[in-house]
Amino acid sequence: MEVSQRTEGEVEVIAISGEIDGSTAPAAQSQILSVAKSDAKILIDMSQVHYMSSAGLRMLLVVYRTVSGQGGKVVLTGLSQDLEDTMSLTGFLDFFDHFESVDAGLAAFN
Amino acid sequence: MQRVDVFPTHEHQGHKLRPGKPFPFGATLAPGGVNFSVYSSHATSCTLVLFDKDAPEPKVEIPFPDEFRIGNVYSMIVFDLDIESLEYGYRFDGPWDPQAGHRFDKSKILMDPYAKAIGGRDVWGQPPDWDNIYQHRARLVYDDFDWDDDRPLEIPLEDLVIYEMHVRSFTKHESSGVRFPGVFAGIREKIPYLKELGVNCIELLPIYEFDEFEHSREDPKTGRQLVGNYWGYSTLGFFAPKAGYAATGKLGMQVDEFKALVKELHRNNIEVFLDVVFNHTAEGNEHGPYISLKGIDNKTYYMLTPEGYYFNFSGTGNTLNCNNPVVRNMVLDCLRYWASEYHIDGFRFDLASILGRDPWGAPLSNPPLLESLAFDPVLAKCKLIAEAWDAGGLYQVGSFPAYGRWAEWNGKYRDSIRKFLKGEMGVIGEMAQRLQASPDLYATRGATASINFITAHDGFTLNDLVSYNEKHNEANGEDNRDGTNDNDSWNCGWEGPTDDPGINALRMRQMKNAMTMLLVSQGVPMILMGDEMGRTQYGNNNTYCHDNELNWQDWTLLEKNAELFRYVKTMLAFRHAHHALRNRWHLTGTDTVGSGYADITWHGTQAWNADWSGTSRILAFMLCGKHAHGGQREDDYIYVAMNMHWESHWFELPGLPKGTQWHAAANTGAPPPEDIWQPGTEPLLENQAGILVGDRSVVVLVGK
Fold first, then answer.
1. H or E segment at A73?
2. What residue ranges do the domains of chain B occupy?
3. Closest Cα to residue B342, out of B417, B257, B262, B405?
4. CATH superfamily of B4-139
5. pLDDT tens-digit series, residues B540-584
6. Helix (H) or strand (E) holding B96
7. Minimum CA–CA partner of B264 in chain A
8. Does the predicted model carry a pTM greater than 0.95?
9. What is the 3-state composition of chain B as percent helix, strand, coil, each rounded to the nearest 5?
């Protein structure tokens, strides 16, 4: 799993690639939260994530709770159909705005 | 500040360990590791067995060092485990002495009774590897679901309409049109349907992990595969939801999927009850498999004869020893867990009379388990419902130890209504009791002690109740011997489906009659899944073994029987609109609010003069709206005339107070759309003095 980060205007764009499971979720979480200053606008590009375990779902929710607790906002983009289904079936998707593309996600912040 | 107990003190084959905490039982996340705790009062030693997920052989076996046992509890923290890929079990050593009740066998790997998730049957119907040395594998879960502001709804019991359903049967049929058929998520997709119907509580047949392959066999005549445990009344583990009931079970996310369903149902004001089976387990008798309790502490967990054989009050091989203090605590822990972690609103206890037997099988007058449940602080607002009988001959409808809390499946309600519905004589007196929530049975317990039902998963569906005189269980492969013969059913003139329009019209009317009686009765109504659209089991009254159309809800019936569905949902709306139908306490037959009318009055073809004779098939009653909820609510007057005679009769109507008039709410003898009216749109009766009630018909009026 790899995490890359860039800034688009006011938005921190974080792209994750690979699998998020119990062994990789803690690293992903700490990298994402390292840019989570107050009022942060965070877009997580999931288009290169093909598998996410329970721990991965929880990592996303921890990010959401941390960022929204500081007045910020988290948006997901590029969820595969499988991931979207899994997140929806387990209730995790209820917490997130999600968009097909990074551009659409960025537009959602404006 | 760092805690001292994050440091290991022991090591076994590279695994770092430390003495654990005895409580809570089960496997619990601890700082840096997992706390394993398990109890046995007769074992001599215990070994923790760890597997990688789905691996055929254990990755390590860690004997509990002597100093890790406190009392009879073995506990240990193992550090640095990946809880997502971990499966665990135990081996117990101890005496093999069946006569003394001990069946220890250290060659068996046993599942933790407190397992929060169980692997091995992750996808429904996927054939398991029978050579697997550990079939049902304990797994760990994150109990950290984000409920937002959800909690159990606490809808007053008198306001509930319960819908009894099977998770898989509800949406497995291709006509269900859901994306995820046969699972929790499928129910979630059907919430708009449940809302439209108007039920505000679903009661799920068992969802604790079970093995659908248990007792699977081929029908010797047809070669058809029979699923011995389709309904799920044979539990593997009491703390784990069935993985095969989750679309995400293959990912190990059944816990989250079920919680997401509960949360969404709650958002829609629908409660969730679980049908729980604490009377026996899937381990059978002395010939049954070792899964968990049998090898951990047989003598503690099961009721045994003096010779060491299994008592069989459940009819399924063994009987859980519920009034042993340790077992009692397990049941309590379990229900608290489901109430607090899953926000479950209520529980229906299968063969609950067993829970009132002592360890030797004798009925207790003050059963500690039932008392503990009734007074438990976590369960204080949960609904507790007993199936107040068992397979050992104990029948406690009306006498189940209630402690002011317990409600009962009212089997006598079912029997009386069925007899009256088919035109049997001599049941008018009984009917008057049943319509009032059976004060003859529940005098001191109030109306909400009575869970009223005409049909349930056991027995005929409503459609079959009016279509078959006899059970037709040949498909069960037991030569039609299984299932009850006491159905009190009537086929309306032809056994099974027919093209005869007269018979079909009568059946439709009888189904409407039954639903009307159910929904105007005091007490708490329960509807069987699909009865609102005429679901059939083709005359089979015991479909426990069928994973097919005999159980699956055929949603095309919604169109075919649109007339019935419209009637039922409108009658549900009628019930919800009238407090007078939903009293918490029993009616008294007297005027307690000075309205000039008693809360309930009885009538016949003559007003104020019911025919109580042994040849009567007619009964009418009126509820005074000023008495609704003991006079605390204002409601309309309600009049219900039931004519179960095969000829129509003129019913003289009781007079109303000045300024109020009778309006027609429902008339099962009238063709649709005039068979029922939306609450608020009821037309004024032209003749306020009387009404013709057709043969085998029910009329409901509102006085306003």
1. strand A73-77
2. 4-139, 588-703
3. B262
4. Immunoglobulins (2.60.40.10)
5. 999 999 999 999 999 999 999 999 999 999 999 999 999 999 999
6. strand B96-97
7. A91
8. yes
9. 25, 20, 55
Residue reference for tokens 């093995």: B211
DSSP string, B618-657: EEEEEE-GGGHHHHTS---EEEEEEE-SSS-EEEEPPPPP
Q: What class, spelled out in words, does domain A2-108 have in CATH?
A: alpha beta
Sheet holding B117-119, edge to edge: B60-63, B45-52, B86-93, B137-139, B117-119
- In whole angstroms, what is the distance from residue B13 CA to residue A69 CA? 44
What is the four-CA torsion angle of B554, B555, B557, B561, rounded to 10 degrees?
Answer: 150
Residue among A84, A89, A95 with most chain B CBs within 10 A, to mutate: A89
Distance from CA of A87 to the nearest CA of B (A): 9
The one catalytic residue among B212, B257, B333, B350: B350
Instruction: Provide DSSP, B663-696.
Output: EEEEETTSPTTTTB--TT-PPBPS-SSEEEE-TT
CA–CA distance from B117 to each of A47, B47, B205, B252, B289 (Å)? Answer: 30, 20, 18, 8, 20
Answer whether B253 sits within 8 Å of A58, measured CB to CB.
Answer: no
Q: Name the catalytic one among B164, B387, B408, B488.
A: B387
Tens of pLDDT along A39-96? Answer: 999 999 999 999 999 999 999 999 999 999 999 999 999 999 999 999 999 999 999 9
Angle at CA of residue B409, ends B405 and B415, nearest 5°: 145
- Which residue is it, tokens 């349907």? B193
- Using a CB-CB distance cutoff of 8 angstroms, which residues of chain A are in contact with residue B257? 89-91
In the CATH scheme, what architecture does the domain B588-703 have?
A: Sandwich (2.60)
ipTM, 2 decimals?
Answer: 0.97
Q: Which of B477, B534, B597 is nearest to B222 (CA)?
A: B477
The encoded tokens of residue B655 equal 């007079």
